[in-house]
């Protein structure tokens, strides 16, 4: 994949680049074409296999050499003004990550790129909600479609125990995700079993959480590395946990916090893609009384190069 402009963009096309990722202005300037479709077609004729063009408020468009004369596009329901730093890089990262998947397609890459870029541009967190049964999944997808926002469907190890097996509820959620009109990801949540995490990878989950927080540090690192190695070979992301997130009674216990230095070392040693941190929230809270340690969150953000995941958000005050 090549993200460049000018003569280098034309050279990359002639070299047969799998993916080119110019913005609208770079594309028109390099080719001298009057419009986006004509400019993209020129790069495809030179030898590029696929062109992703970002057009600011108009979103992203993808042109595929395998489907000449046809393109697909994706944009936010409400345009964001300005040129948010990192939005283009997020799209590039999403495309690169998607290319690792065995069933990568221009459509799937476009949806992922649009979602990642929008998340950076909007400066919002991404919501993830636990599925209990098919009706939960249907309701979450319907709400996401009504709001025109992406959503993550989570299947927990407790949910798997409730159903007696992973595959049936996983198949239902994956089908709901495929049929949605907005980006929907399916994620395995809080799997303390390595075998369950690997099974979710094999079933086609986009990401899994291996929760080794109940282990001592060295064992957590070793187990997490095994899951990461297996998942990354198959293009699947891995979330892990360090510093156990509180339960119903332990949300504000003094020891329930993640150390930034240890977290940075853990992420480097395991290669995880996201890290769940203990910063004052708790699972299964019935009141919004959690007190988040914002200073600790800032320190963790500065120490880590991977996204932070906040569990137990139902107990966090809306303010």
Explain what this protein looks like in three dimensions.
This protein is α/β, with parallel strands linked by helices and 319 residues long. The protein is 43% helix and 15% strand. It contains twelve helices and ten strands. The strands form two sheets. Strands 4-5-6-7-8-9-10 form a seven-stranded parallel sheet. It has a three-stranded antiparallel sheet with strand order 1-2-3, with helices on both faces. Helix 1 packs across helix 2. The longest helix is centred in the middle third of the chain and has 17 residues. It is globular and about 60 Å long. The two termini are 42 Å apart.
- Average residue-wise pLDDT: 82
**Which term fits the overall shape?**
globular
Strand arrangement in the largest pleated sheet:
4-5-6-7-8-9-10
Largest sheet: 7 strands, parallel
The number of E-state strands comes to 10
Q: Give Rg in angstroms.
A: 21 Å
Distance between the termini: 42 Å
Percent range for helical residues? 40-55%
Question: Approximately what portion of the residues adopt beta-strand conformation?
Answer: 5-15%
Low-pLDDT sequence parts: 245-255
Number of helices: 12
Structural class: alpha/beta
> Topology as H/E string?
HHHEEEHHEHEHHEHEHEHEHE
Descriptive labels:
43% helix; three-stranded antiparallel beta sheet; globular; 319 residues; alpha/beta; 15% strand; seven-stranded parallel beta sheet
Question: Quick recap of the structure?
Answer:
The chain has twelve helices and ten strands.
Give a topology summary.
Elements: H1 6-14, H2 24-31, H3 36-46, E1 50-54, E2 60-64, E3 71-74, H4 87-98, H5 106-122, E4 128-130, H6 134-147, E5 151-156, H7 157-163, H8 167-179, E6 184-191, H9 194-203, E7 207-210, H10 217-232, E8 237-242, H11 260-270, E9 274-277, H12 294-303, E10 308-309
Parallel strand pairs: 4-5, 5-6, 6-7, 7-8, 8-9, 9-10
Antiparallel strand pairs: 1-2, 2-3
Helix pairs in contact: 1-2, 1-3, 2-3, 4-5, 6-8, 9-10, 11-12
């Amino acid at each position: 994949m090549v993200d460049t402009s000018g003569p280098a963009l034309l050279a990359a096309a002639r070299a047969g680049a799998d993916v080119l990722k110019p913005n609208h202005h770079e594309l028109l300037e390099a080719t001298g074409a009057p419009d986006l479709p004509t400019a993209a077609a020129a790069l495809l004729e030179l030898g590029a296999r696929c062109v992703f063009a970002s057009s600011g408020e108009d979103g992203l468009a993808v042109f595929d050499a395998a489907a000449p004369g046809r393109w697909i596009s994706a944009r936010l329901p409400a345009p964001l003004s300005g040129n948010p730093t990192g939005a283009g890089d997020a799209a590039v990262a999403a495309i690169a990550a998607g290319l690792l998947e065995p069933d990568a397609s221009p459509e799937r890459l476009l949806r992922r790129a649009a979602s990642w870029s929008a998340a950076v541009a909007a400066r919002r967190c991404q919501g993830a909600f636990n599925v209990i049964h098919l009706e939960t999944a249907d309701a979450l997808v319907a709400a996401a479609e009504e709001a025109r926002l992406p959503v993550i469907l989570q299947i927990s190890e407790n949910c798997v125990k409730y159903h007696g097996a992973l595959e049936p509820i996983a198949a239902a959620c994956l089908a709901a995700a495929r049929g949605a009109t907005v980006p929907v990801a399916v994620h395995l949540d809080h799997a303390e079993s390595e075998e369950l995490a690997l099974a979710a990878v094999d079933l086609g989950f986009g990401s899994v959480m291996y929760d080794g927080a109940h282990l001592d540090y060295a064992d957590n690192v070793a187990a997490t590395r095994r899951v990461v190695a297996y998942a990354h070979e198959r293009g699947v992301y891995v979330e892990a946990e360090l510093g156990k997130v509180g339960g119903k009674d332990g949300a504000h216990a003094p020891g329930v916090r993640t150390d930034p230095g240890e977290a940075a070392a853990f992420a480097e040693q395991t290669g995880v893609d996201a890290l769940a941190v203990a910063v004052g929230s708790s699972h299964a809270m019935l009141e919004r009384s959690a007190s988040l340690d914002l200073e600790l969150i800032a320190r963790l953000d500065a120490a880590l190069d991977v996204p932070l995941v906040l569990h137990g958000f139902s107990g966090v005050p809306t303010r």
